[in-house]
Every structure is written in structure tokens, then in C-alpha cells.
Amino acid sequence: MKVLQLIDSLETGGAERVAVNIANALATKIEGSYLCTTRVEGLLKDSIDGKVHFLFLNKQSTWHLKSILKFNAYVKKEEIQIIHAHASSFFLASIIRVFNKRVKIVWHDHYGNSMFLQNRKFKVLRLFSVYFNHIFSVNKQLEQWAKVNLKAKSVCFLPNFAVINNEPSKTNLFGEAGKRIICLANLREQKDHHNLLNAFKTVVENHGDWSLHLVGKDFNDPYSESIKSFIINNKLEKHVFIYGSQPDTFHILSQCNLAILSSKSEGLPLALLEYGLAKLPVIATQVGECTEVIDNYGLLVPPENSKELSKAIIQCVEDEELRNVNAMSYHAHIQNTYSETAQVKTILKVYNTICN
């Protein structure tokens, strides 16, 4: 079996990490594991296993003919049987399916705004979904949505899984050791950093020796600027630090003592799984699969409620024993429930079914 993971970039986002993780996990389990990024390379390129065949298309636009022809020739030459397309890359996969009737398409839906599915624009997606042999949805809401709105032959919920990759240890965090809070999330509105900053502002009033560290892609857009303005306007420059995208996720997490996601909407955030692998106590909002992932092993608060979020943070800051107990139980929970072994077994079962 030869399977190619297709993704638009290798920036440090959740969908991108999942694509790399699956390609790496399959490298020793099938005849050929491939990964193609269409538009942009990125920091995750260094995480690709040496056994994975890698292709970069440098696609300049949706209908960039040179890239389409190059990819089509590559799929034929390598005799790719399955294109596992992630997020918006379904478009290119569907075009290749038109030229190669024998190629099967698996689409992986990572849609993060699953709390607001009524606003999702999906006319093009629905049109091309007739070519999908299977859909993996990262939460149960997306699974049900796909069954109702799309035309794929089959759909199932597939939890994300995280792995500890060998990464260079280069990012050293500011702030006092033993009193660092991490938020691993790209600077996007759905991640609701303002909710977190408002909550942390309250925390600092009584625990000024604690610091907050924001790690994730900075798009340098109005949302990003509003975050930076909030930090300056509230005199938090010595307490809140922004690092942008960084390749050494687990080295960063190893320097922290409490992990948070304050999103207003989520699918199944990979960051929550990485927090667990790093043995960190966790606080998250009750959105997407966050409630299912954390279960009783961390603290959950309503979304867009900085008052409740600040209470949860203060509770953890003031109770080291609570942090330690939650961290170890959550770590065991993630290893047992969201392991690479279990999810890869499901993936291979689907691959074999659609090929046969």
C-alpha cells in the first residue's frame, strides 16, 4: 500500500502536525508513506521521518497548472493508491482523482470552528465530496455534520494523536522558573487570547511572579495587533511573552507548570494532547472535544468567561498538589486513550477497506 498525506503547509498548526504524525507513523507499516505540501514549507519539515517520501509543489494559486501537472505525474509515477487530504487540500486531491480513477481519496476534516457550523461555507466541499471514499472527522459534531451535508461513501470520528518528536532545544522562556503558564495556539480569533489575557490580568494582581507564554504562529494581522496592544495598555509586558511559531514544542512545554487553552471554538486540539504527553496540568474551555479529552483529569470552564477562567488559574497557581495530581493522571489518560497505536490501527483499517 502506498499512501500520500496532502497538506497546504508545514507551519506549526494542528492539522499540519497531524499530517506529519500520520505520515511518520505509517513509514514502517506500509510499503510507501508519502507527504506532500502544496503551498508553503515550514518548521515541521524537520520533523518528517527520513523514511517518508517528501514532495513540495510550491503551488502559487488554486489553478496553478504547473503544480497540478507535477503532482499528477508524481502520483502516477509512484503508483499512489490513497491520497489522504487534510483540510482545504481536498480540492487538489479531487482534481487528481478526475485524472486517476483508481486513486482513492480520504479527507480529514480539521475544521476548528465546529461550535459555529451554521456559518460554514461548504458548496465547493460538498460538490467534490462525491469523490471522497472516506472522511475522518476530528470531533463528533463534525462527523454528524459530514453525514448530513456531504456525499462521501463513509464517515467516522478519528481522535487526533500526539507524539514526542526529536526536536532541537532552542527556545528558552522568560519569566521565573516554576511559575510559567503556557498557551500553545496560533494567534487566531477562535483561540480567544483576549479571554485568557483578561483572566491572567486578574491573576497577576495577586500572583505577580507568574508569567504567561503565548506560542503559535503570529499572522501580524489586526487580531495579533489587538493582543499586543492589550498587553501594553494593561502594563503586562513583564508578565506576558509572545514567541511566534517555534519548532521545539516539547522543550518549551518542559519549562512550564500549567497549560491553558481558552478557545471559543475547537475541533480536537492537538495542543491538549501535547500538554498531556508533557505531564502538565490543564485548564481548557468547554468547546469541541475538549470536555471529552480532559474528562475529570483537569479543569474545564465555560468559553468567553474570563472570570471563571481566572478562578481556575488561581486555584491551580495556589495549589501545587492539585497541579501535580492532575498532571500525572492526565498524562496517563492521554497515553491510554489517545495513543498513536490505537489511531493508526483505525486508519489502516479504513485504508484496507477502501482499497479492497
Task: Give structural attributes.
Glyco_trans_4-like_N; Rossmann fold; alpha/beta; 7-stranded parallel β-sheet; 6-stranded parallel β-sheet; Glycosyltransferase; 2 domains; Glyco_trans_1; 356 residues
Short précis:
40% of the residues lie in helices and 18% in strands. The chain has 356 residues and is of the alpha/beta class. The mean pLDDT is 95.
Can you lay out the helices and strands and say which pair or pack?
Layout: E1 2-9, H1 14-26, E2 32-40, E3 53-56, H2 65-78, E4 82-86, H3 90-99, E5 104-109, H4 123-128, E6 134-137, H5 140-149, E7 155-157, E8 180-184, H6 193-206, E9 211-215, H7 222-233, E10 240-244, H8 249-253, E11 258-261, H9 270-277, E12 282-285, H10 290-294, E13 299-301, H11 306-318, H12 320-337, H13 340-355
Parallel strand pairs: 1-2, 1-4, 2-3, 4-5, 5-6, 6-7, 8-9, 8-11, 9-10, 11-12, 12-13
Helix pairs in contact: 2-3, 6-11, 9-12
Task: Describe the overall structure.
- The protein is α/β, with parallel strands linked by helices and 356 residues long.
- The protein folds into 2 domains: 2-161 and 339-355, Glycogen Phosphorylase B (Rossmann fold), CATH 3.40.50.2000; 180-337, Glycogen Phosphorylase B (Rossmann fold, 3-Layer(aba) Sandwich).
- 40% of the residues lie in helices and 18% in strands.
- It is built from 13 helices and 13 strands.
- It has helices spanning 14-26, 65-78, 90-99, 123-128, 140-149, 193-206, 222-233, 249-253, 270-277, 290-294, 306-318, 320-337, 340-355, and strands at 2-9, 32-40, 53-56, 82-86, 104-109, 134-137, 155-157, 180-184, 211-215, 240-244, 258-261, 282-285, 299-301.
- The strands form 2 sheets. A 7-stranded parallel sheet has the order 3-2-1-4-5-6-7, with helices on both faces. A 6-stranded parallel sheet has the order 10-9-8-11-12-13, sandwiched between helices.
- It starts with a strand and ends with a helix.
